């Protein structure tokens, strides 16, 4: 297939995904996805956002009544669309179109980031004299593959049709990764600041973003070097093979030169964008408690987990059962667990900052207070960027079957518990535990049994 035909094929798949979303968006009441706890959480529910906007229009604090816990900037962007109606069309059509556009832009940015990764691979291999190995390695077009996986992932479609604001959160996360891959410090900082402002957990992505800006996109997969060694070891002695291996390692170290200038620019832009966001938020809610009220109702809500309504995570059931005396201790344990894994993974994967960002996103999706399928949609899409490295992942069929099983059993168990009364909370919580176990497989690179 020629390059032109590949591009045409890619855009045909994109148009097909957009068409499917528009069809599903036009019949939202038949699907009733916006009420599903797997899709909408207290932080991503558009219904709660509409309530917060109504309170603001009534000259009240948007955080009154503990209904809305999102960003004032998101309220400014999507709030007017929740009250604007098009005659003869679904009520939330305009908001749905925003989410569709956000998904398409995210896919385009993922594709561009994938091309940057492939260009970095090729450039590094040419410097090392391994360009022939790169041509014969059958590296997949990871950018196109990852973009289509993100667009056609059922979790992405469900989050979009279910009116979850996770599409906006995913967009700014991908924007920060794209900016770092292109070494655009201002764009990377803008995406990181907005992503952290919207959901807090992307704050840990500052480490892979700094590594991306300093070292550039990921180094070539060590699989390629191992293939060269294996090919030449067969025709050489053991001493020559060890010498060849040391030579390849020395050559790979030469490429790792850290550039401080884009990192310094990145940190300066973070200060500028953070100040700008805080000023806008302060102006928006200056009559309703100011920034102190904002931090309490958003970040405080995320960290203290006061809302124990069921979701796809594992924290709601645990804190519903734990004694209040131990609540603060376990809050520190669960949130500290994320922080404890940051540095070991950064040391292990410093040569693969994009893959490190992917692992961090999986960790936050696993341990965040109010997860949804929109979080899984992001890391499953990014997984396509590493299709070559992870094509030998063990238990791939088991993982696929597990995701299908959880997706089907979760609404069934919720129905048995809430509506039919023939089950209990353990039925639904079991699907959440299974869902968490599936994600654990991505967190530790050693469990993937691949060379990265």
From TrEMBL:
The protein's topology relative to the membrane is:
Multi-pass membrane protein
Q: Which domain of life is it from?
A: Eukaryota
Q: What's the protein here called?
A: GPI transamidase subunit PIG-U
Q: Does the keyword Membrane apply?
A: yes
Q: What is its main location?
A: endoplasmic reticulum
Would you identify the family this protein belongs to, as annotated? Answer: Belongs to the PIGU family.
User: Which terms are listed as keywords in the entry?
Assistant: Endoplasmic reticulum, GPI-anchor biosynthesis, Membrane, Transmembrane, Transmembrane helix
């Amino acid at each position: 297939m020629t390059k032109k035909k590949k591009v045409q094929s890619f855009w045909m798949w994109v148009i097909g995904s957009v068409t499917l979303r528009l069809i599903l968006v036009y019949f939202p009441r038949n699907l009733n996805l916006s009420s599903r706890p797997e899709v909408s959480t207290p932080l991503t529910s558009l219904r709660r956002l509409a309530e917060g906007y109504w309170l603001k229009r009534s000259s009240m604090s948007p955080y009154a009544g503990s209904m809305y816990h999102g960003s004032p900037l998101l309220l400014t962007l999507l709030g007017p669309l929740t009250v604007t109606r098009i005659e003869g069309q679904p009520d939330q059509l305009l908001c749905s179109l925003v989410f569709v556009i956000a998904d398409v832009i995210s896919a385009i940015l993922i594709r561009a980031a994938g091309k940057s990764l492939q260009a970095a691979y090729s450039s590094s291999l040419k410097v090392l004299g391994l360009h022939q190995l790169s041509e014969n390695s059958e590296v997949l077009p990871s950018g196109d593959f990852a973009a289509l996986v993100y667009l056609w992932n059922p979790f992405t479609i469900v989050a979009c049709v279910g009116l979850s604001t996770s599409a906006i959160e995913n967009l700014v996360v991908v924007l920060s990764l794209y900016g770092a891959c292109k070494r655009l410090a201002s764009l990377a900082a803008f995406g990181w600041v907005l992503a952290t402002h919207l959901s807090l957990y992307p704050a840990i992505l500052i480490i892979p973003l700094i590594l991306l800006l300093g070292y550039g996109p990921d180094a070539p997969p060590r699989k390629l070097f191992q293939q060269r060694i294996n090919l030449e070891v067969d025709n050489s002695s053991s001493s020559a093979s060890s010498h060849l291996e040391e030579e390849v390692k020395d050559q790979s170290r030469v490429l790792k030169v850290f550039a401080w200038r884009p990192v310094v620019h990145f940190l300066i832009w973070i200060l500028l964008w953070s100040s700008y966001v805080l000023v806008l938020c302060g102006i928006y809610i200056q009559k309703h408690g100011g920034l102190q009220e904002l931090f309490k109702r958003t970040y405080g809500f995320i960290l203290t987990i006061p809302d124990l309504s069921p979701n796809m995570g594992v924290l709601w059931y645990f804190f519903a059962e734990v004694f209040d005396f131990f609540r603060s201790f376990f809050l520190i344990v669960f949130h500290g667990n994320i922080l404890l894994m940051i540095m070991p993974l950064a040391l292990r994967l410093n040569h693969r900052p994009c893959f490190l960002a992917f692992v961090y996103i999986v960790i936050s999706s696993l341990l965040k207070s109010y997860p949804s399928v929109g979080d899984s949609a992001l890391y499953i899409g990014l997984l396509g960027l590493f299709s070559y490295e992870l094509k030998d992942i063990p238990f791939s069929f088991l993982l696929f079957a597990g995701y299908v099983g959880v997706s089907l059993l979760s609404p069934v168990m919720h129905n048995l518990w809430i509506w039919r009364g023939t089950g209990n909370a353990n039925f639904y919580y079991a699907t959440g535990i299974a869902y968490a176990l599936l994600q654990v497989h991505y967190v530790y690179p050693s469990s993937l049994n691949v060379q990265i």
